[in-house]
Amino acid sequence: MPEIRKNLVTGEYVILAPERAKRPHDFVVKTPSIPPPAYDRRCPFCPGNEAMTPPEAYRTPSQGNWVVRSVPNRYSVLSSTGVLWKKIEGLQESAAGVGLHEVILETPRHDASLAVLSEAEVQAVVATYLNRFTAFCSDPRVEHVSLFKNHGVSAGTSLEHPHAQIVGLPMTPVQFRRRAEDALRYYTKHGACLVCRVLEDEARSAERVVYESPGFLAFIPYAALSPFHLWIFPKRHESTFGGATAEELMDLAHVLRVVLRKVYFGLNNPDYNFVLLSGAPSDRLPHLHWYWAIIPQVTKRAGFELETGMYVNPSLPETSAAFLRDVEIERHMLGEPQPLESAHTTAEECLSVVTEDDNVVREVVESVTMQFAC
Question: How do residues 309-338 score in pLDDT, each as one tens digit?
């Protein structure tokens, strides 16, 4: 018989359907993708093509060849200039479309991904995430920051080069606000953070835990909305990613790399979405707890999910977690990177073949929608 579970953190219900249940191996990607080149002369994000992007907002290291860089999105969904205004006229409510939008280039290599980077490289990526998150939150026009990554076509990506995006919104999305309100109600009634209670329960049972470090717990929720849906929570209570310590950032990079490698090797590099849900650094709230979510795109939402807001998960969270726990990532040895091609192609030549404006806007819209299924 199917079982309906409630996800207390999101407030959503999920139907676990044994009749539709699949073994974890059934979700392994069967069709191998064509490996991309280490360097693509047409790619605006590859080294040597820096003139194809707007002037960078951040890079590390600050001098010499870059490891990670962040640039304003050429096709931003919001305007970085202008004054924020909001107005209500009768039943019509509107606001100025001002805000911030950057693309975080996670590696110079066109053919890499977070799962196959070294731990030091992932640390640089995570540090860049925090730098841009903090910078966006400091803009008085920004009320909420959305940081997300789309890996693969079915996850909404439009450019192959590994990258994440960050958007500073002039308002708080309704679904994030509802979750914060639910968390506040729980705190008011029980005097404790709901997520802290969930972490205690998950660590105690351990049946849905995928990986644990001194500072973080990675697990598949009791009421996971989709197969292999993962959460990475800091054990220390903190309402904002901006409050993470240097030690926690290094620990997060380690956990993130381990979990993504388990997904990469266990499911054969599936498409996935990766999002941050966090309060602002100025709001240190006792009821809110920041976290990352990883959502492999191994199933599709359809009319039932769209109409009801409920999800049908054909996998059991306990079985999926056990499968990922057993993935031995250290036995997968990566070959030595091949040398990059010459990067002497001019920006003008590259711009003549790259026209991604519609795709980039579509990627952002799909990702902001996906964020609240996590």
Answer: 888 998 999 999 999 999 988 765 444 344
- Taken in order of first residue, the domains within the chain and their CATH numbers are 3-80+92-333+362-373 (3.30.428.10)
The per-residue pLDDT for 33 is 64
Instruction: Return the axis-axis angle of helices 246-266 and 119-137, rounded to nearest 10°.
Output: 120
Q: What is the dihedral of CA 272, 34, 334, 154, to 10 degrees?
A: 0
Determine the Cα angle at 170 with ends 70 and 123, to 5°: 30
Q: How far apart are CA 156 and CA 146, in angstroms?
A: 16
Q: Tell me the average pLDDT across 109-135.
A: 95
Read off the pLDDT of residues 63-80 as tens digits, 9 standing for 90 and up. Answer: 899 999 999 999 899 999
Task: Classify strands 311-313 and 272-277 as parallel, antiparallel or unpaired.
Answer: unpaired
Supply 352's token pair: 């003549």
Return the bridge partners of 59, or none.
Answer: 69
Chain centroid to CA 82? 28
